[in-house]
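Hypothesis: this fold can be encoded by more than one sequence.
Test: take the structure tokens below, design a sequence, compare later.
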């Protein structure tokens, strides 16, 4: 079960992390399950960078994606040396969603999940406010009347998502949505 990353028709697919070598290559942290579809030669990425960056408002065209020691490394048009590559570190890469792309089973875009009603045993317990993509799993931030709750987005805890109905069903472990109260241990000796 995975959440896809998006903001409208743009998909957040990666973050540039570190210059690699002297010829402008940059290591990438991937935010996509399908790099073979997103990182093809000629793909054009919109950059999310601070407004003070010389790259603000610009795009990057991918020349090639290679793998070095299981780490993806990208080569971009007009990024030909290490100094230029270093100006792109921490940039987030966005790409246009292909409207003809077939949906994946048990995978949703963030914008589809945010705002869904969260049901537990048929009762609304909150609303999905945010999706965080962590290395081990995705986490849903659910806003409840008692505050925000982080819910691991795994099949065992979120068995069903119904985008059309606007609901997401949770079967959380005890204590995830409520405070556990410690029950006093039964006294072995009766009071006199």
């Amino acid at each position: 079960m995975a959440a896809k990353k998006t903001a409208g028709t743009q998909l957040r697919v990666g973050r540039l992390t570190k210059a690699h070598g002297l010829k402008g290559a940059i290591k990438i942290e991937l935010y996509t399950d399908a790099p073979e579809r997103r990182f093809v030669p000629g793909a054009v990425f919109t950059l999310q960078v601070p407004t003070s960056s010389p790259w603000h408002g610009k795009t990057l065209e991918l020349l090639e994606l290679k793998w070095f020691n299981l780490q993806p490394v990208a080569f971009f048009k007009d990024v030909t040396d290490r100094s230029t590559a270093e100006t792109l570190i921490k940039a987030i890469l966005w790409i246009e969603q292909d409207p003809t792309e077939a949906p994946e089973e048990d995978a949703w875009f963030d914008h589809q999940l945010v705002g869904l009603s969260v049901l537990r045993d048929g009762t609304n317990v909150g609303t999905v406010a945010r999706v965080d993509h962590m290395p081990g799993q995705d986490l849903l931030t659910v806003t409840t009347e008692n505050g925000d709750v982080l819910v691991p987005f795994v099949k065992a805890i979120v068995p069903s998502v119904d985008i059309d109905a606007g609901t997401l069903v949770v079967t959380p472990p005890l204590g995830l949505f409520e405070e556990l109260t410690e029950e006093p241990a039964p006294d072995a000796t009766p009071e006199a």
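The chain has two domains: 2-96, 110-169. The chain has a mean pLDDT of 84.
Hypothesis status: open.
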